[in-house]
Each structure stands twice: as C-alpha cells, then as structure tokens.
Amino acid sequence: MSTLDTSSTGLQALLSPRTVRSTVLPVVRQQVSALEPTLARICSYHLGFIDEHGDPTGAGSGKLTRAALMTAAAEGVGLRPEDVQSQAAALELLHNSTLIHDDIIDADELRRGRPAAWKVFGASLAILAGDALQALSLQVVVDDPGPGRAEISSAFAEALRLVLAGQSRELTVRLGPGAGIAEYDRIVEEKTSALLECALVTPALRAGKPEHVLAALRGAGRHLGLAFQISNDVEDIWGDPAVTGKPVRGDIGRRNPSFPVLAALSADSPVSERLRELWHGDGTAAAHLQEMADLTEEAGGRHTAEKLSRGHLGSALEHLGRAELSPAASAELTALFDRIVNRTA
Amino acid sequence: MSTLDTSSTGLQALLSPRTVRSTVLPVVRQQVSALEPTLARICSYHLGFIDEHGDPTGAGSGKLTRAALMTAAAEGVGLRPEDVQSQAAALELLHNSTLIHDDIIDADELRRGRPAAWKVFGASLAILAGDALQALSLQVVVDDPGPGRAEISSAFAEALRLVLAGQSRELTVRLGPGAGIAEYDRIVEEKTSALLECALVTPALRAGKPEHVLAALRGAGRHLGLAFQISNDVEDIWGDPAVTGKPVRGDIGRRNPSFPVLAALSADSPVSERLRELWHGDGTAAAHLQEMADLTEEAGGRHTAEKLSRGHLGSALEHLGRAELSPAASAELTALFDRIVNRTA
Fold first, then answer.
1. Which PANTHER family match (chains A, B) (predicted)?
2. Residue ranges per domain, chain A?
3. When you count CB atoms within 10 A of the terminal residue's CB, does the N or C end of chain B come out lower?
4. Rounded average pLDDT over B14-37
5. Could you tell me which chain B residue has the CA closest to the CA of A186?
6. Which fold has domain B17-342?
C-alpha cells in the first residue's frame, strides 16, 4: 500500500477534517432540515444527524471526502473555504442522494454500519428522499449567485448524469475477462470519478481558471476515482467490515464489477478457470465467496489491483502537479488523496 | 362540467397540439437518446417512442400539457415557441421523471395504457431512469444560455422540490375529514400545481416580466392544478379506464387523498359514517371500492368536487386575465385550461 509520509512535509494543515466539518456540515444540516418534514427526517437519518427514532446523534456521518477535496482545491486557487461552502455542501448532498438510491437498488441493508434508509423508512419514501437530496443539491448550486454560477451548475448536472450512467452500466453490463477491464474503467470514471472531478474543478471554475488548469484537475479526479474504487474493491473482498461499515464481499456476492476478480479472470490459468465457473454460477454462500476470494488472490488479482491502484494514485498526483495550485494546498491535497485511497482518513 | 365554448371565439389557434408536438418532441427525443443506452431505452419506452422490445412506435406518448402551456404562455409575453423550446422539453422530462418514480412507489402497473417502466425493466433500473430524466431536465435548463437562465433554473429546481414534498406528504399524511381538505390543497399545490406554475412562469422569466405578471401566472397555475387534480380524482372513481389509461379506483384502493371522498367524509351524515368505516378499513376488493364510490356520491362528494373544480378553473382564468398576455394567447390558454381540467384534449 502506498502510504505517503505526510508527517515529515512540514505542512501545517490548512484544513483539518474538523475544519471542513465545521464549515460544511452546518450548511448540509440547514438545507436538509428545510425539506418537507418526512423527507428531512429520512435525509437527516441517512446523513447521521439523527437516529431511527428521530433523536439527535450529536454527529454527522460520512467523511465529507468530496467537501474536503473541494475546500482544499479552493485554497489552491486562492479562494477561501467560504467561497465554495454552498457548493461543497451541495456536492455532499448529491453524493448522498446517489447512496440512498444505490442502497435500494443493491438491496444493501447496511450503510456506514447502520440500517440503510430504505430498511428504516421503506423503499417508497427512500426513493423520494434520494430524489429530494438530488434536487436540493442542484437547487443550492443554481441559487448561489457567486462567480461561475452557470459553469458550476453545468458541472454538477454533468457529474450527476455521469454517475447515473455509470450505475446503469454497472447493473447491465456482464463483465468478462479482457474487454471487461476497459468497461470497468469507464464505469468507475462515471460513477466514482465524476463527483471527485466536480469537487476539484468547481473552485477553479469559480476562480475563472484557464482550461489547462481545469483539465489537470479533471485528470487528477479521474485517476483518484480509479485508485479509490480499485482499492475499495480490494477492501470489499479482504477488508474489515468494521472499517467499511458494509457486509464483506457484497460486490462479489452480487457479481458487481470487481477489479481484483476481473484481473484474476484475465490471468488465463487453471485457477482463473475455476474462478470463472464460480463467478458465472450463482453461489453466494460464505464458503463460495471465500473460495472466490482465495482463487482471486491465488491468480494474482489482489496483487494486480493493489499495484494498479497505486499507479492511478501516482497519475492523480501527476495531474495535480500541473494544476498550478499553491504549494500548501498541493501538499494538503496530496495527503487527502492518499487518505482517500488508503482509507486512513 | 364546465365546457367552455371555444368554437365560437373566432380564435385562430396559434398552437395546435400538433405544433407543440413538432417543436418539443424532437428535443425530448434527442436529449433522451443521448443518455447511457440502457437509461435511454427505458426513458424512450416510458415516453412512448419505442415499445418494450425496443421497436419504434412512430409516436410519442403523453399530451405534452406542460409544454403546450409553456409554449402558449411564451406567445403571450411576445416570445416565439423556439425561445422556450428547451425549457418546454425540460419540463416534460421533469414531469416524466416524477411519473417513473411515482409508478414504482404506488406499485402502479399501468401508465398510459401500457405496462409501467418498472414492470418492464425492473424497479432498480427504473429508479435510475427516473433519476436520469430528473438530472437531464435540470441539465437542459442550466445549460441553456438565453436570458433569464438563472431565474428559470431556480424555478425548475424549486418546482421539483415542491413536487417531491407533495409526494412525500401524500404518502405519509393520514387525511381525515375537516382538516384533511386544507392538507389536500397543500399537497396538490405542491405535487400538481408546481409544474403548471413553472410552465406558465418560465416564458415570463425569459421575457423579464415584472413581479405582478409572475404572480398572476403563478396564481393561474396554482388554481389550474387544483381544478385538474380534483377533476382527476373524480375520474379515478367514476371515469373510463380507457380514457385515463389507469385501472379504475386506484386512488381510493390505496386510500390516497381523494377530494370527493374527503368532501363526502366531511358531510357528517350516516352515509358518511359508513364511508368513514370503509375508508379506515383495509378492503380493496372491487365490491368495496364500488360501495365507497356509491357512498361518496350519495354523501354529495362527487357534486362538491365537480363544483369546486369548476370554481378553481374560474379562479385560474381570473388570474390569467391579470397576466397582461396578448389576447390571442389568453384565448389559447383559456381553451387549454379547459381541455386540461375536462380531459377533452
């Protein structure tokens, strides 16, 4: 695992997670609380502000990864955190709208270690709550009168379009070996990278930066998404459910595109042949999943995945280096990228 | 029923349904076809462009009511249909996004006389397809560079917020007699009127009209929504499924807020007492629904509903009269309002 050493950079953190939390969470909370009461309750539950009985938890859930990226990128282009506060909140709303629907679609019963919204409130209301967060996110962005309003609104709408395209492709594409990896990249660029790109590019749009800066930031977000998603796929198979907050091996149980499995299937060995049989079968018992995990590792899928994730992280940082950000913000983003991919946040 | 006589107005129709269809449908079709292929297919099916096997139907479904209102209102404020072509298409996309999700939520198996999208493609993909239409609608509006772009984007986002609030309220509120009618009005103003207001007000925003014109158009849309929804509730109970395209008495079977029933429950008679028992029971057999329909009519619920629908149509036309539109467009909208409420379109 690539754990960049950030302790020795001499960097005085511009943005502790606490800072992002105190800047962005109040906006998220206030926006959500203004929704119709039932929708407000479901969204507040999903976001971790209240428990299933409606009692305050004293916390907000999630790592606010996208808000942290946007806030750090804002510093990098000479803006203050307040200049993109609404957009950072809106991006978290947008991300969470997709999670609420995703859990219904995947029939995932757990989200961040708690029952998913649809398990608590039913699928019908959870569909509306996801819709409401999606609409609210775009409303916040559209209503913000600051510079770059139109460009930022377009970036948000386009990011959402891509996420939905990626989710649909993920549900419908049957990934085999070989061709599967190009398709996998495309799905990840849509469903995972698009919001990270949006996070990084929004402050540059607000600051009126030229196209080569926007392109560098988009490239950084694209590779960050790939590095993160591949690492996430590794975690799904071999990670600790206490860290991921989700049942182990959900992706391979559902035969969702999983990079280590695709890499292992491409290996063209007796081991990968046996894995292929299981993957195209319908076994979802723990023993089946365990055998698939073991075969994937034996066929080199885990090693390839970890190596490629590191490679994409490197590419993300290369693109970041071309975005002409302030050195302090670059260091901050470098540390953030590493935390995102390696889940040390 | 209030059937306004439009044949004798001497009005040379500015906008036949055919004109709206030829202006707006190509934009809708083109936007939807650019979606990710699976989502494009589901949305094209829902919109009636293709059948469930993917073959072209040679038609587009729906009456494009909202697009027709917007196009007529554009003429009324001195714009050409092309000036709001994208917005008219976007409003139809938005409306249809809510229908796709609504059918899942209500478990409605029929839409416009055909199997609902979720019945054909499954709920998971239909959730994403609804999301995609919602996102696409806002993207079209946000990306249109014409005058009033920001205000129109805000109007769309706000309209969607209201529709979702109304849908949530409809699912969660237990309507009883008395207080129920105020709550009913609120739900309808949100879930039905909001998009009609958006249709009428968008051209005025584009043309930079003053606040009193906007307020008159919003008032017209609000009352039009109430007139339409109450008339629709009457149709649900006593209408012809061949006209509505939906099974008869779906609303009362699900105990959805239905104005004639609420009015009958308020009557405070032995008949309404028996109706109350049935309404709070869980019977959904055809004989139960027939008895509820008969009791509703006997207690005066149908009469009250039909009278109130006419009253709201009158109020809508009064507001329209204050919007300072061109006489030809006013006449056109008057005819449209009547067709919408009385389903003679």
1. GERANYLGERANYL DIPHOSPHATE SYNTHASE, GERANYLGERANYL PYROPHOSPHATE SYNTHASE
2. 17-342
3. N
4. 85
5. B36
6. Farnesyl Diphosphate Synthase (1.10.600)
